[in-house]
Every structure is written in structure tokens, then in C-alpha cells.
Write a structure and sequence with these properties.
The complex is a heterotrimer.
Chain A lengths: L4 E5 L7 H23 L4 H13 L2 H25 L8 H18 L5 H30 L3 H20 L28 E4 L2 E4 H19 L1 H11 L1 H6 L4 H28 L4 H7 L1 H11 L4 H20 L9 H21 E5 L10
Chain B lengths: L10 E10 L2 E11 L4 E5 L6 H8 L7 E6 L2 E3 L4 H6 L2 E4 L11 H7 L10 H14 L15 H14 L4 E5 L7 H16 L3 E6 L2 H7 L2 E6 L2 E7 L5 H9 L15 E15 L5 E12 L2 E5 L6 H9 L4 E8 L2 E3 L4 H7 L1 E4 L3 H5 L6 H5 L10 E2 L2 E2 L1 H14 L16 H14 L4 E5 L7 H16 L3 E6 L2 H7 L2 E6 L2 E7 L5 H8 L10
Parallel strand pairs in B: 3-8, 3-9, 6-7, 7-8, 13-20, 13-21, 16-19, 19-20
Antiparallel strand pairs in B: 1-2, 1-4, 4-5, 9-10, 11-12, 11-14, 14-15, 17-18, 21-22
Helix pairs in contact in B: 3-4, 14-15
Chain C lengths: L4 H28 L7 H18 L4 H29 L4 H12 L4 H9 L24 H5 L4 H19 L1 H11 L1 H6 L4 H27 L11 H11 L4 H23 L6 H20 L1 H6 L16
Helix pairs in contact in C: 1-7, 1-10, 1-11, 1-12, 2-3, 2-4, 2-5, 2-10, 2-11, 3-4, 3-10, 7-8, 11-12, 11-13, 12-13
The chains are: A mainly alpha, B alpha/beta, C mainly alpha.
């Protein structure tokens, strides 16, 4: 059975692929999504139009999109940072949870400090908690060669149980002692609320700006420093890294911790910018960590692109939330995100292969 | 028992063209082999021999041209079809499943309607074949337990079991001692006596002269000539192979070796391999200033582990390594480097270099930590680029640019970059493994020239090679490694191919003065 | 005697371990062919939701509907697996990321939830659940009664499958070829074995088995559809394959071990034994990590390794 097309390995990667592939992937995802929608009796055009409208079409919508985009930016950065060294960290979800725990702790403990101090404390604690959670994965991999995919994933489930425990199953520091009927976390004081920056009619959460700065730092670290060089060697050729004397085991722990710290920062932003309370159920339903993987894939692991992709996915998510109802079932957004991830992954092959038509072989030769 | 096989096969290949991205491996090749002959396919590395044989066995589909068996045109869509027609191959890199037993590997190719495996019947038949051809192999051994030479025997047995009438061997003696190679030739001769055909792919002239009836020479993807072995000489063959007169004589040195001025000393080194088994036992060796010391031996006798211990990639479990009379810390690559050790590994593209990285990024693989390449931990791109440009010019590297990934370069240019980087670090000692494997003649000349230059300028060179011809051309002194120990230490002018060959095979020879 | 806590734990281990075993067996076959499938969770969920739909909509006797539901669940799982196979084998994408994207796509927040909504299956409990049987009336036999004679048809099926799998893998020619494909596709190809065909078939088979595992959750354990009902079982199944050294028999035992861990919390609570509930909930996941650590390092790694080509796409015409 011969196919009319065949994949031929590329020699070099033309530059246009850097933006061409994500765009093609996106297009592919939208087409596939349309197929799913039509198969279940919905009109894809109208659905997409409404998404566009609710996600981006007004300054109000855009400001809300930025709110949704902020955690995605952090988890997208977290995933990119790890993936670039070949570490498949899918524990962004759990690392973010730990970040919320850390930031909530700081927010409560430092409640009577001036706002800049509280914010700084929340950021630091969020990063420490998230980084610690990820370092477990890193240590297991570095010391015992344990597969990081499964360990990081298991830690997600454990982190979720931990969150539930702190709010629902124990009288912890985080739980509001005055909440009897339905346990909730302690609400943060107003002084712990993160700033809202206004740029004209658009409101930008403080966390989003932090994410932009973080993206810049990550970009510089990975592209211009010795650290980044070593990471790229390890990713490309572990045996060459060993040959050159690069301390791979330490790098694994460091990069995982950095990844977790970024996810934890996302958790801090979630508490400081948006919820102002440790909301165990809410943050679990949101699935920020998994979306972060989609962000990283579509952004092709580039930290700057990750910010833009996060905004796009934020718009999708924001629209999905606003449009929820019988006509727009939950699960559609997740499905679309999954499709984007698919097509982004499938699109990657275009960077390695060219599609060629099967050449007609001369008569007499094998077919 | 010489029974002629039931039907003989003649194979004819006409006008075979096979292209890969960036290169035409076979450019209109004609080749024909008769039943009952050993036909050698000779050419230097990159001439297209392996490609041609892969086309014949159905692994590759030719872009143009025809294959005929006994005048009947055939198409192979897969290796299975070639197997069914009686064409078997023993590859350079064995096609064996490491975790399976010998018997399981051989059963694997069986065409049978039975759902269940009948292992005992297969083992009986294997043992019978093994006895018939005097091939010693235990059907129940697992492949990873066997030596390379034994694995090759399994491959041959496999082909015979499946009734191969045409057997292709791709560089079979690369992994054998001279004595084992002679034994192999005996087996081949008995096979062709029955009417089978053997196609023997090689780049080694004396071997080809020793075993072949006819020789077809390939050069740059084309057939140059097909001649009777009896009517030609190695010199003629060399000229056909390369297109010009080539003789590898012993190199002329401008500075003599100083074996007593020791730059590298290993004392009582033990080390383990990747599986934790002992790979090196009680290694003592020295290399002097400007001295080229060669280590001969069949691959897999501890050479790789030895090079890695000296380079710092591997921990020695006992003993010390000293450079310029100072003991260097065990198993620390950076310490070895700063002590003046340069390690050029056998695997150029995946260990010595980062295949996907650019030329300029590979050149800084060892120097990126210090000035002038980096300052305050930040890489200085313009310095990196300038350095690369200098190297390309000075070493005449053929590359589209400094940002080209090195995997796109030819073998010879890859080696140039690797050597350039290493020479740049002004080492006192260079440990270099199989430096010319897989390179074309021009590149081989170039590498040898550079090595000799380095030695002349004072570097102590430890040359690990399986190529005896190369060793005799370059070395001042020859050590032989067998099963992780040094079994011979002979001055080059006292050594003969035979004596080294025996040592390589583990046979100790008596010497008056050691 | 059958109220003995040990008996109950063992019986629960078999009961809760069965779906994990189905998924793990499927993954075992897939990995034996050299393909890594991280989309097991997604395939289980798709199987589960499809089975519920079937259960609500197919008319007929209880047995007939149950049979159809299981088959449809298997079919759904295999469809998703076919997609994964296409991405990994034909397009040669990174198998890890492909599997992850399938889980996100089909998982608790994705397609399975979408279909559940669209088909409106979560609103009521399942009409024809897979019931626990009482074969030969031996459910009350001492000790073995609850453990062996008080299970669902799927459990009994799983035992048959385990035995057949052992024979298939280690005694048949096809099984030998499969193992060769997973260990060394170059060798298998050179021996005339169709690597692509073996990988496709065993990947799709893996999805079908995962789908069956999913039906167990939605039609037996709960039995009602809840988004993300498998709660990470698919991931535990993947770890289980490693834990079982890619052997069906060891995988079966491991599945029962994890099944016991999962149900331990409920059992102890029912007995009013005070143990920290959250810790028990976390036990299966913690144990998975512990098991992985033990299996990855040292002696186990050297003796019993994964199929050598696992996760590496195969290209024949490589320069």
C-alpha cells in the first residue's frame, strides 16, 4: 500500500517555520474543532465568532482575557523551561498548587505589612514552594533515573490532596475558622491584593507584568548565558554533555526547580491578583498547569512567544467561561485546547520533514 | 560434505541509482556476481558499497536501475522478499536482538505456518549447521553475552539457516583479529565450493586480494572496473579505488619521540564498563613527549573505557593517572582538561560534538566557561563567531557557514572541527580513538598529517585504533589490549603484523626482551 | 470468616484492580511493540463515556446491552489509539508529547466531558451496569468466595486474557516477532517483519483494552458518569507496566496491589478505624512513585529492562 506522499528529512530549518508552524497548527486545530462541532450539531462559525467576540473584541473583554492569560503565561513558561532541556515536566499543575499555598501563607502571615512587602513575600514564597515541589521530581530523576513524567504527574495528584486537606480536612493555618457550613480559606486582607495597572482603557494585572519580566529573564538566561548553553548541550546530546564535563545531574535539579518556581509564581499570582484566598476547588478545576503545556508546545518553547500564546488561550478560556450554557458545553474549551496541542505536535514534524510527492519510478525498477 | 546446493544464483545489477538528501550514493552502478565465486566489492569509505548492498537486499529501493536473478528481473519491496529469493546479508552493525538467544534470533526470520514456536527443532537444525561449517556457537546463549566475533558467526549461521544462496558480508573483518579473519575466509571458501555466492564488501586491499576471485571497484558512486583477482595487485587496486597513486608509507617525523620524558602515566588502573563488569585490569602505560603510542586491539577489549578514564569521563576503581608527573583527580573531566589532556572520542558526532549544534557552538564546547568566550557567565557571540571563522579558514573546513549544524558536514570536515577544537586547547596529551574510521582517503591523509604535526610539536599521542595499517604508519611504539589488559608493548620497528595479530587474539608470544 | 479485613482487602484489590489491569495490559502490548502511549487516561475516559451512552441508548436485555457497551467502549478507546498511532508511527512525532496531548484532548476537561454533556449522560445513573456475578453459587465460600467468586465478568475475562497474553508473548511466533519489533525494529525489519503493522495493531489493541478499563469505572464502580471518573488510574496503569517488568502476570499482581491501596481508605473508614483519610487517598500515588524509584535504579534496571526501542520512532531509510 503506497501513499502518494512521503516524508523526506529536511537538511536545514527555514526561518519561516518559526511562525509558520504555529499558525498552521492553529488553523488545523480550528478546522478539526469545526468538525467536532458539526458532528455534534453545532454551528462552528457562530461558535468561533462568539469566542472571538467575548475574548478579544472589546477592551473589557481583553482585560478579562489578560486575567485568564496570566496563570497560563506562568505555567507556559514553566513547561518551556523544563522541556527545553528535555525534561517532560507535567507537574506544573501541582507546582502551581504549592505556589498558592505558599503565597496564601505569606499573605496571611504578613498581613499587617505594607503592600509592596506583602507582594514580595508572596512572590518569594510562591516560588519557593513551587520550586521545592518540582525539585522532588528533579532529585528523583538525577539520583535514581526515575521517569519524570510519571513522578511529576503523581505529585500533581498528591498536591491536590494536600490542598483539599488544608482547606477541608484539617484545622490548618490556611482555613478560615469562622467558616462552618462550607470550609473556605482565610481571606487575604486588602493590603495583600496585587496591583491592577491601567494602560488606557485596558487593565493589566500585576502578575501579567511579572510574567513578561520573567519571560525576558528566561529568554536571556537560555540564549545568552553559559547556563543556557549547557542546557542546550544536555538537551541535544547527553553523551556530549558528559564528555564536556557538564554536571548534568545538578542541572536537572536546577532546571526542574526553576520550572516549579515559575509555576509557583503563577500560583502566587492566582492568589494575589484574582482569588485573594486559597481556593482549593477553584484552582483545581481550572487546570492551569495542563494548559501551560499547550502554551509551551504552540509557542515552540520560546518564552517570548509563550506570552502571546497565553493571551490567545486566555481569550479562548475567557470566552468559554462567559458563554457557558447548554449551547456551549463545558469541555469544549478543553477539547479545543487539546486539538491545538495535537496540531502543534503534529506541526512539529514539518520542521523535521518535507512532504514530497512519491516520485514515479522508471519502468523496470522496483515500484 | 560438499553437496552442491539445489539451484545456483547469478545476480546482475544494472544502472542502479540511489539518492539521499544532498548526495547521490549510487550513480548508475553495474555489478554482477556468479554462483560459486567470492566477489569483492571494493571502494573507500563513502564510495557507495553499503548502499548498493542495501539495494540488493531490499532495504532500499533504487531510484533507477534493475536487479536480475538468473536473468529474471526482480523487484524487492522489502528485505523479506530478498530473503525469500535467497539473498542474505551480514551487516557491519549486526541485526540481532540483544536480549534474545541465538536460537530465537534465528527463528525470527522463519517462514512458517505454525503459530507456536518449536524451539527444540530449531536448535537441532542450528547445531547441525554449525557442525557442518565448523562454526562454534551455543544456540541458547543470549546475544549480549557473546563476543563480537561470535555474534558475527551467529549472523552467518542465520543466513545459512534460511537458505541463503547469495551471502553479502559488509566489512566483516573490522571486528576480527587477523587469525579470526583467516578462519572466516575458510568458511567462505567452503560455502562457495557448494555453489553459493559470496559478495565481500571491504576497503582493505590485502584482504580483498587474499579472499576474492573477482573484484569490482566502486568510486564516488560509480563502477570503475571489474577484474580477476589473479591479474591485479594491491597497488593497481589502490589506484582504481582512489583515482590516483596512493601509498601510505611510514610518516616522516621532524622531531623524534622522547619516550623517557613522560607526559602521561597510568599506574595500576582498574575500571568497570557501563554494565558494571570489569573492563580494565591493572593497566600500566606511559606516553612520552612527542611520542605516538598506538593501542592495537579488536574493539570491545576495554579501549573505550581506557580512553574515558584518561579523559575523566569514567571513574577508575583503582590506580592513578598522571599528566606531566602530576596525578590528576579521578573521573573529573574538567580536571583532566585543565591538566592538559585532550580526548578525541570514537563517536565524533554524538559524543565529541553536538550533532545539532552549529560549527561555532561546537568549537566552544570546552572553552565556553572562560574568557574570552564568556564574561560574567554571558557568552560573547562575536568572539565565538570570529573564532569559528578563523578555524574554518585555517583548517580548510568545507561548510556553508559558522552556523551550519555539524551533522550536515561530511565525515572529514566533522573530524577537522573536532581536531581543531582539541588542538586549540594546546594539550600535553592527546588520547584519540579510531581517528580515520569512515573517512575518505583525502580526509585520512589530512588527519594523519595533523596528528604527526601535534606529535612533532611535543604532544604525547595515545592512538587507539583497529586499523593495523594505520598503526604501523604512525606509531613509535605499539601496545596491544586484550580483555582489558595490556598484553604487548613493542617498539614499532620490531613489530610484525603477525605478532601483533596474535596478541590481539589473546595468544601470548614469547619474547626474549620484553 | 469472610468478614475478616484481610479477605475484604484482597477482594477489593481484585475488584478495583481489574480496570487498572486492563489498561496496563493494553499499555504492555503497546510498549512491547516499542510505542509509548501516555494517552491511556484519555482512552479510558473515552471508553467510559461511550459505554454509558451505549448503556442508555441500546435496547435489549441486560446482558446484551452490557456486551454492547463493553464493545463500544473498547471501540472508542481504539479509535483514540488509532489517532495516537498515526501521530507516533506515521508522523513520527515525539511520542511523549503526542500521548500527553491525547490525554488533555480526551481527558476529564476535554472531549469525554464534552460528549458527556452533549449526550447528556451524567444526569442519571446507568441503566444496565455490569453487575457482580455469583458463579457456581460460591460467593460465600470461605476466603476464596469473596475474592474469586464474587467479581464481575470483566474480572474473569481479565484472567483469561492474562493467560492468553503470556502464551502469546512467550510461546508463539507472532509474540516473538512482536518482542523483536520492540527490542530492535531494525533487526525485525531486516528479517522481513512489518514493523509498522505490528506497532499499529498493538497500539490500537492497547487503546481497546484501555477503553474496556474505562467502562469498568462508568458501568461498575460508580456506576454513573462523572467527568474524569478514572481519577488518574490511567497513569497508574502506565507505572504498573514498568512495575510488572512488561510481563502480564506480574502486572496483574501489581494491579491488585494498587486496587487494594485505592480501596483501603473506604474499607478502614467503614470499620471506624481512624487513619488520616487524606494520607490514604494519596497512598496509591505515593506508592507509584516509590515503586518507580525502586524499579528505575540499580539491579532491577540492569536485569529486566524496557523494550530497547521504546519511545523511539522508526525510520527505515536513514542515512
Amino acid at each position: 500500500m503506497q501513499s502518494p506522499l512521503r516524508l523526506e528529512r529536511r537538511l536545514t530549518q527555514p526561518k519561516w517555520l518559526n511562525w509558520g508552524v504555529p499558525l498552521l497548527s492553529l488553523l488545523g486545530a480550528l478546522i478539526l474543532g469545526a468538525v467536532v462541532l458539526m458532528a455534534t450539531g453545532k454551528n462552528p462559525i457562530s461558535v468561533y465568532m462568539r469566542i472571538l467576540e467575548r475574548g478579544f473584541a472589546s477592551t473589557d473583554a481583553f482585560s478579562r482575557t489578560l486575567i485568564s492569560a496570566t496563570p497560563y503565561a506562568f505555567t507556559g513558561l514553566a513547561a518551556s523551561v523544563a522541556f527545553r532541556m528535555g525534561l517532560i515536566n507535567i507537574g506544573g499543575e501541582g507546582q502551581l498548587y504549592l505556589g498558592t499555598i505558599g503565597a496564601a501563607f505569606a499573605g496571611i502571615a504578613f498581613a499587617d505589612q505594607p503592600t509592596p512587602i506583602i507582594i514580595a513575600a508572596m512572590i518569594i514564597c510562591g516560588m519557593l514552594f513551587g520550586g521545592f515541589w518540582a525539585s522532588i521530581v528533579g532529585v528523583l530523576k538525577a539520583k535514581f533515573s526515575t521517569n519524570e513524567i510519571i513522578t511529576s504527574l503523581m505529585l500533581n495528584y498528591i498536591a491536590a490532596i494536600l490542598l483539599d486537606y488544608l482547606i477541608f480536612n484539617s484545622k490548618s493555618y490556611w482555613r478560615d475558622p469562622k467558616s462552618f457550613g462550607f470550609p473556605t480559606g482565610k481571606r487575604l486582607v486588602e493590603g495583600a491584593y496585587w496591583y491592577d495597572m491601567s494602560f488606557g482603557p485596558i487593565t493589566v494585572p500585576f502578575g501579567f507584568l511579572v510574567a513578561i519580566i520573567a519571560a525576558g529573564i528566561v529568554w536571556f538566561l537560555y540564549n545568552r548565558t553559559r547556563f543556557g548553553y549547557e542546557v542546550s548541550v544536555i538537551a541535544s546530546s547527553p553523551s556530549a554533555a558528559r564528555y564536556a564535563g557538564i554536571r548534568t545531574r545538578w542541572k536537572i535539579i536546577t532546571v526542574m526547580s526553576l520550572s516549579g518556581a515559575l509555576a509557583g509564581l503563577g500560583g502566587a499570582s492566582d492568589v494575589g491578583d484574582f482569588r485573594h484566598v486559597l481556593d482549593s476547588k477553584g484552582v483545581q478545576i481550572a487546570g492551569y498547569g495542563y494548559t501551560g503545556i499547550v502554551v509551551a508546545a504552540l509557542a515552540r518553547l520560546n518564552p517570548i512567544s509563550a506570552i502571546f500564546v497565553a493571551v490567545f488561550l486566555g481569550g479562548l478560556s475567557n470566552a468559554g467561561y462567559a458563554l457557558q450554557g447548554p449551547d456551549f458545553p463545558s469541555g469544549l474549551v478543553g477539547t479545543l485546547q487539546g486539538l491545538i496541542l495535537f496540531t502543534a505536535v503534529a506541526g512539529e514534524i514539518l520542521t523535521r520533514y518535507r512532504i514530497k510527492r512519491q516520485t514515479h519510478v522508471a519502468e523496470g525498477a522496483s515500484s | 560434505m560438499v553437496d552442491y546446493i539445489d539451484s545456483k544464483l547469478t545476480v546482475t545489477m544494472k544502472g542502479i541509482v540511489k539518492r539521499f538528501p544532498g548526495v547521490v550514493a549510487n550513480d548508475g552502478v553495474d555489478f554482477e556476481a556468479r554462483a560459486g565465486e567470492v566477489h569483492a566489492l571494493l571502494g573507500e569509505n563513502g564510495a557507495g558499497k553499503s548502499t548498493l548492498s542495501n539495494v540488493l537486499t531490499g532495504l532500499y529501493r533504487p531510484d533507477e536501475g534493475t536487479i536480475s536473478l538468473n536473468d529474471e528481473v526482480v523487484h524487492f519491496d522489502s528485505p523479506r522478499e530478498a530473503l525469500e529469493r535467497g539473498i542474505g546479508m551480514v551487516h557491519q552493525h549486526f541485526r540481532l536482538v540483544n536480549s534474545f538467544t541465538v536460537a530465537e534470533n534465528i527463528i525470527l526470520g522463519e517462514q512458517s505456518k505454525n503459530i507456536m514456536m518449536d524451539t527444540s527443532a530449531a536448535i537441532e537444525r542450528i547445531s547441525a549447521l554449525a557442525t557442518q561449517y565448523s562454526i562454534a556457537v551455543d544456540p541458547n546463549a543470549r546475544i549480549w553475552q557473546l563476543s563480537v566475533g561470535e555474534q558475527q558467526r551467529v549472523e552467518i549461521l542465520k543466513a545459512l539457516y534460511h537458505g541463503a544462496k547469495i551471502l553479502i558480508l559488509d566489512e566483516p573483518t573490522a571486528v576480527l583479529t587477523p587469525q579470526e579473519a583467516d578462519a572466516l575466509f575458510v568458511v567462505l571458501r567452503s560455502m562457495v565450493a557448494e555453489g553459493r555466492t559470496v559478495i565481500f564488501i571491504s576497503h582493505k586491499l590485502d584482504e580483498v586480494m587474499a579472499v576474492a576471485d573477482r573484484i569490482t571497484v566502486l568510486r564516488a558512486g560509480k563502477t570503475v572496473s571489474t577484474i580477476e583477482c589473479a591479474t591485479t595487485t594491491t597497488r593497481d587496486l589502490a589506484r582504481l579505488m582512489v583515482g590516483r597513486d596512493v601509498v601510505f608509507d611510514r610518516v616522516v617525523r621532524t622531531n623524534q619521540a622522547e619516550p623517557d620524558n613522560i607526559v602521561l602515566q597510568l599506574s595500576n588502573i582498574d575500571a568497570n564498563d557501563d554494565r558494571g563488569r570489569q573492563a580494565l585490569t591493572s593497566i600500566f602505560l606511559t606516553v612520552g613527549k612527542s611520542e605516538i603510542v598506538a593501542i592495537a586491539g579488536v574493539a570491545g577489549n576495554g579501549q573505550r573505557e581506557l580512553a574515558e578514564v584518561i579523559g575523566g569521563m569514567r571513574n577508575a576503581t583503582r590506580g592513578t593517572v598522571a599528566v606531566n608527573n602530576e596525578v590528576i583527580p579521578n573521573g573529573r573531566v574538567r580536571k583532566s582538561m585543565s591538566a592538559g589532556v585532550s580526548h578525541v572520542p570514537e563517536d565524533r558526532l554524538h559524543t565529541g560534538l553536538v550533532a545539532d549544534h552549529s560549527v561555532e557552538d561546537n568549537l566552544i564546547l570546552k572553552s565556553y566557561r572562560r574568557a574570552p568566550i564568556s564574561k560574567f557567565s554571558i557568552l560573547r557571540r562575536n568572539v565565538i563567531r570570529d573564532q569559528a571563522t578563523d578555524v574554518i579558514e585555517k583548517y580548510d573546513v568545507k561548510t556553508p557557514g559558522t552556523t551550519t549544524p555539524v551533522r550536515l558536514l561530511s565525515g572529514g570536515n566533522v573530524q577537522k572541527i573536532l581536531l581543531a577544537r582539541e588542538f586549540n586547547s594546546s594539550p600535553s596529551v592527546m588520547v584519540i580513538s579510531s581517528p580515520t574510521r569512515g573517512l575518505d582517503v583525502g580526509a585520512i591523509e589530512n588527519v594523519r598529517k595533523r596528528l604527526v604535526e601535534a606529535a612533532d610539536s611535543g604532544v604525547g599521542v595515545l592512538l587507539i585504533s583497529e586499523d593495523l595499517e594505520e598503526i604501523f604508519a604512525l606509531a613509535d611504539r605499539i601496545l596491544v589490549m586484550y580483555e582489558g589488559t595490556i598484553v604487548g608493548n613493542i617498539a614499532a620497528h620490531d613489530a610484525t603484523r603477525e605478532s601483533i595479530g596474535l596478541l590481539m587474539g589473546g595468544i601470548a608470544i614469547h619474547q626474549e626482551n620484553n | 470468616m469472610n468478614n475478616n479485613i484481610l479477605v475484604i482487602i484482597l477482594a477489593s484489590g481484585v475488584f478495583y484492580g481489574t480496570p487498572i489491569f486492563f489498561a496496563a495490559l493494553g499499555e504492555l502490548f503497546t510498549e512491547r511493540s516499542g510505542v509509548l502511549n501516555l494517552g491511556v487516561e484519555g482512552m479510558m475516559l473515552m471508553g467510559g463515556v461511550s459505554a454509558v451512552w451505549a448503556s442508555q441508548h441500546i435496547p435489549g436485555s441486560s446482558w446484551f446491552v452490557v456486551l454492547c457497551s463493553i464493545l463500544i467502549g473498547a471501540f472508542a478507546g481504539s479509535l483514540v489509539a488509532a489517532l495516537h498511532a498515526f501521530l507516533c508511527i506515521t508522523l513520527r512525532t515525539n511520542q511523549t508529547v503526542a500521548g500527553l496531548s491525547i490525554t488533555i484532548f480526551a481527558g476529564g476537561l476535554g472531549l469525554s466531558s464534552y460528549f458527556a454533556n452533549v449526550w447528556d449522560v451524567a444526569s442519571e445513573s446507568v441503566k444496565h451496569p455490569i453487575r457482580i456475578l455469583n458463579p457456581a453459587g460460591l460467593s460465600d465460600a470461605p476466603i476464596v468466595g469473596p475474592i474469586i467468586f464474587h467479581q464481575t465478568i470483566l474480572t474473569y475475562l481479565s484472567w483469561v486474557l492474562c493467560g492468553l497474553s503470556l502464551i502469546y508473548l512467550f510461546r508463539t511466533r507472532t509474540g516473538l516477532k512482536l518482542r523483536a519489533v520492540g527490542e530492535s525494529p531494525q533487526t525485525a525489519d531486516a528479517m522481513g517483519i512489518n514493523v509498522v503493522k505490528y506497532r499499529y495493531i498493538h497500539t490500537i489493541l492497547g487503546g481497546a483494552l484501555a477503553g474496556i478499563g474505562g467502562t469498568y469505572y462508568s458501568l461498575t464502580i460508580v456506576p454513573q458518569w462523572v467527568d474524569g471518573v478514572t481519577k488518574g488510574a490511567g497513569w497508574i496503569a502506565i507505572a504498573l507496566v514498568i512495575f510488572g517488568f512488561w510481563r502480564p502476570d506480574l502486572t496483574l499482581l501489581g494491579a491488585y496491589l494498587f486496587g487494594a491501596l485505592q480501596s483501603l481508605g473506604l474499607i478502614l473508614k467503614a470499620r471506624n478505624i481512624e487513619i488520616n483519610g487524606s494520607l490514604l487517598d494519596a497512598m496509591p500515588f505515593i506508592m507509584t512513585v516509590v515503586v518507580l524509584v525502586l524499579v528505575s535504579g540499580g539491579w532491577a534496571h540492569k536485569r529486566l529492562q524496557a523494550p530497547a526501542s521504546l519511545g523511539v520512532p522508526y525510520e527505515r531509510e536513514e542515512r
